[in-house]
Amino acid sequence: MITDFAPGQRWTSEMEPELGMGIVEAIDGRRVTVTFPKSGLTRTYAIESAPLRRVVFHPGDRIAGDGGVSLTIAAIETEDGLNVYCGDGGRLREDRLADTLTVNRPADRLMAAQRDALPLFDLRVRLLDHRHRTARSPVHGFVGGRVELIAHQFAIAAEVSSRRFPRVLLADETGLGKTIEAGLILHRLTTTGRVGRVLIVVPDALVVQWYVELARRFNLRFRILDDAAVKAQSGDPAGDASLDDEPLCLCGFAFLAGAPPAMRRQLMAGGWDMVVVDEAHRMRPGDDLFGQVQGLAHTVRRLILISATPGQLSARSHFERLRLLDPDRYGDYRQFQMENREFGRMADLVQAVAQGDGIDPAAVDALSRLLGVSPDRVARTLARPDADGARRRLVRTLVDRFGTGRAMFRTSRSAVSGFPGRTVHLVPLDAGGKGMRGRLNTEFLRDCGTLPQPEDVCLEDDPRVRWLTAFLREHRDEKTLLLCRSPQKVNALLRSLEKETHIRIGRFHEGMTLVQRDRNAAWFAEPDGAVLLVCSEIGSEGRNFQFARRLVLFDLPADPELLEQRIGRLDRIGQTGVVRVMVPYVRRTAGEVMARWYHEALNAFERYAPAAAWVTKRFMGALMALTAAPGPGEADARLARLIRGGRIAADRQRRRIEAGRDRLMALDRWSPEETGRLIETIRRADADSAFQALVEALLDHCGIVMEPVDERVFRLMPDHRYAQPLPGFRPSGIAVTTDRSVALTREDLGFLTWDHPLVAGAMDLFLGSGKGNVAFSLWPASGPPAFFMEMVFLLEAGAPPDLCLDRFLPPTPIRVVVDHQLEDRKNDLPDVRSDSFADGSAALFAQTLPAVSHRIPDMVDAGRAMARARALPVIEAAHRAAGLAMEADVQRLEALGRVNTAIGDEEINAARAERDALLAAVSTAVVRLDAMRLIVKARAD
Question: Do 273 and 301 form a contact (C-beta atoms < 8 A)?
Fold first, then answer.
């Protein structure tokens, strides 16, 4: 147990050796805080279990101080708990050591006659190689999600997650998988280490659903923040309930908007790396929720808003949400309105560039003016040999600076195949009893919020209930989802239906607890579960019921975007049959007005209507007047005229959207070729035959046995060696599959990939432990006896996480082999995995080590020199790649600054400083000895 910490001492992390040498900053009770200057990170550990190793140099070691002083250690003294190294007439306290010093742990172990079995050395080298390949792979962080490989979802996730600080609005049409896209982005950023602390804010009704989906699909375990969390915090005098100890947090809208002051301060100062907000269209500038998200947006560098209905083209609230994401791009509302009006013309220009066949001089001149470059330069760019790539970059530049910007991603259903379609069945009904029409019109006004909702709803003698009863008897074996406005209506429907039918019915409304709602939703999903699920409006908020094909709209909302959300619960990716939308209404009531308006004017039941909200808002006054007096005679004629006018306006607005914003975004959408390559790479990773063997060896070392159960299905069980708890594993064992198709159909199995927390945790534990970093081998071969030193160095560069250095220079293994004459023999020896080597016996090791130990330091120095030489081209390539990427960001800000006065020199200079810091970090990369093997060559006899 470690207890003797003192400020200024030097320690290294056994789990994260790449952080470099740390220095103790503070000791606070049971915790110690260590800063790692090389990487710019600070870690706080529990003293009793800190995975730290004290850095101690020995007489004969050459060390350097932070002021350029260097010396060869002759003696060691202690002072205030710190080592003081003496030599060459000087003294150097350990708190003044240069942060770039490295510790040759493998060499220390070898000199102390310590070694590991050859299979462990082999496993270590294979894991180092794998980690390097994975870090450079375009699918790093994309393999582990339990999701189907759907092109547009991965295209958007790849684009967003490739940005250093993504701030985007995911606005795919309903049913296209925005939540999956957000999960893919989040999973990739957490898996690659670019994001550690995340706050997700969702509608209250979706908190549990998000929690379950993140855990089930992406192995991300969030803490739900609610009133219980506040009570735990206020009742904990030790402060252990602090959000600092909760890296992944999830809360509802009401909690964020109404959190007590202490919790609100914690949320605002939470140090979040990313904030995600679902159903962002429900935020309105000026309300508490928007204010809280705005405060978070000012403090975080990564922000994702999600909304299928982000607002109309010139809506101020839509602009304000975009401004949260990219205040540089969206700094002027008037300019935003002007750009919206010019979307069609800009789309024509962008399409001409994208097609590239004979762009006319007028277009070249327009591009020249927009980009601030000469017409000749534009023409040369479009005529380059790599014109396709140049045109694609030019399209993105135009869309970014003058179009929809980089902040919004919207995929339309027309761009995605595989939807079976939907049909509508309008069911006109007679009013029946006296006063029924008046009662239904009052109900509509209450549903619209014009009148308050009563505590109870009466559906006695309601014609819709009579029709519904008959409908359910006819379709008693088919899953049906019913949506209506209020929980009072849900309860009234249940009372009426239970009297008339004997089918299994579930309820779902905001008056129930989250657990009750989730249980009823799960019951509805079971093959032998509920036949009918009666939902209030919260059932249309993010809930997915694509296993059902019949939807009953018991009433109709006045908001067409809400109507599309309702239908989208069934009509979405994964639906395998035609969705049948049933709309019962009573003649000459508000229900008839809305049903005919949606169907005859907007065609909103049978297809997504992009102009529906804009047109309905424009005609809302006339619509509401008709719903108040929908009787026969003149009202019928007025409704017919209104429908004709609405149909004309909808067609005109739809064409404008399709020719403008949607066409502009479609031209800038993902490349099918690039996305195809990405998905094919994921498929190859799924089918990698080497994965099972390597993971089996890794888990076996951790005391976990893979027992085959079926084809690519295993039971992971601990044996007597299992001691260290690992994430994603239970001591009772878990069942897993390595087959994506099986994982998608069997929720009882975990999906075991390189991204799985168990595999990643086991690999970190093994590589951080030092296991396998020293080995001794016999090479039976002809020729004179000889000995060699095989060394695996890691090329590493320390930098703060926000610089995302691993994009350009991940830890890179460099294999070096030297002989006792310090000559390079890498090409003369078999590969480390070769069967030519045998584990050297203890007797041979005891005989060999004393004879060669005097040469080991020189061999290590020679190997390090060779590794440094081989590292130079790697560093230069990383420097070039980083320079190009960062310079593009600087140039973007400079270009935006020419058309947007909100971008000043301070921001541009900050981008330049980031570029310079990243390039400096790449330039200071060093090699660290990670593993070594002493090899003795001798005749087989």
Answer: yes
The answer to whether residues 716 and 734 touch, using CB atoms and an 8 Å cutoff, is yes
**629 by DSSP, 3-state: which?**
coil
According to DSSP, residue 600 is labeled I
Spatial strand order of the sheet with 303-306 comes to 223-225, 248-252, 198-202, 274-277, 303-306, 167-170, 408-409
DSSP 231-295: HHHHT-TT-TT-GGG-SEEEEEHHHHHH--HHHHHHHHTS--SEEEESSGGG--TTSHHHHHHHH
Distance of CA 626 to the CA centre of its chain: 47
Residue 59: count other Cβ atoms within 10 Å of its Cβ: 12
| Gyration radius of the chain's alpha carbons | 33
Identify the CA nearest to 488 among candidates 517, 530, 460, 458. Answer: 458
Contacts of 277 (CB under 8 A, 6+ apart): 200, 201, 202, 283, 293, 303, 304, 305, 306
b/e map of 784-793 (b: 16 or more CB within 10 Å)? eeebbbbbbb
| Angle, vertex CA 68, rays to CA 64 and CA 71, nearest 5 | 40
| Half-sphere exposure in the Cβ direction for 175 (13 Å, CA) | 29
Length of the chain: 941
In 3D space, the residue among 848, 873, 861, 851 whose CA is nearest the CA of residue 929 turns out to be: 861
Measured distance CA(165)–CA(142) in Å, rounded? 18
- Dist CA 323 CA 729 (whole Å): 43
Question: What is the distance between the alpha carbons of residues 33 and 16, in angstroms, rounded to a whole number?
Answer: 15
Q: How far apart are CA 165 and CA 168, in angstroms?
A: 10
501, 469 Cβ separation under 8 angstroms: yes
The label of the residue with tokens 């093994």 reads 766
Task: Return the residue matching tokens 């690039």.
Answer: 674
> Residue 679: which H helix or E strand, with range?
helix 672-686
Residue of 253, 246, 255 whose CA lies nearest to 278: 253
What's the CA gap between 836 and 937, in Å, rounded?
A: 11
Residue numbers in the chain where pLDDT is lower than 70: 1-3, 60, 67-68, 102-104, 229-242, 311-315, 341-347, 354-358, 382-391, 399-405, 539-543, 630-633, 658-670, 830-834, 896, 898-904, 940-941
Q: Alpha-carbon distance 436 to 636, whole Å? A: 19
Q: Which two tokens stand for residue 770?
A: 């030092």
115 and 76 Cβ atoms separated by less than 8 Å: no
Q: Domains, the chain, ranges and CATH?
A: 10-103 (2.30.30.140), 130-135+678-769 (3.30.360.80), 149-330+407-411 (3.40.50.10810), 332-403 (no CATH), 417-667 (3.40.50.300), 773-938 (no CATH)
pTM: 0.78
581 Cβ contact list (under 8 Å, min separation 6): 422, 423, 424, 425, 551, 553, 567, 605, 606
Neighbour tally for 891: CB within 10 Å: 13
Rounded-to-integer distance, Cα 158 and Cα 672, Å = 13
The sign one gets for the Cα dihedral 233, 238, 240, 243 is positive
First to last CA, the chain: 48
What are the pLDDT digits (tens) for 671-714? 778 889 999 999 999 999 889 999 999 999 999 999 999 999 99
- Cβ neighbours of residue 872 under 8 Å, at least 6 residues apart? none
Do 469 and 482 meet the contact criterion of CB atoms below 8 Å apart? no
